[in-house]
Amino acid sequence: MVSRDEEKYVVWPSYFDKTRSRLQGRKVAKKHAIEKPTIEAIAKAAKTLGLNPIVEKERAYPANHWKKTGRVIVDKKEAKSKLLVKIANRL
Q: Which domain holds residue 22?
C-alpha cells in the first residue's frame, strides 16, 4: 500500500476512461480522455514524463472492487490534477 509520506500518486485507468462520468471516477476532461485505457499505456506515458511508474496488475479501483483493472504508482512531481492531464495528453 502506498502511504501519503512516500511522495507517490496512485493512478487508476478509470481516471482516463471516456465512457465514465466524473461521478464514476473520471478525473480528466472528456477532451483528454480515451476509451478503454490500459495500465500499460498509462505506465508508458508516465515513463515518458519521467515519473518512474510502478505497475500493479492485481488491484481493483475501489468503486469497482470486483473488476481488477490494475493501477500505476507514479512519483509526485506536481499537483495530481496537472499530472493526470499530462499523462492523458500522452495516451
A: 4-90
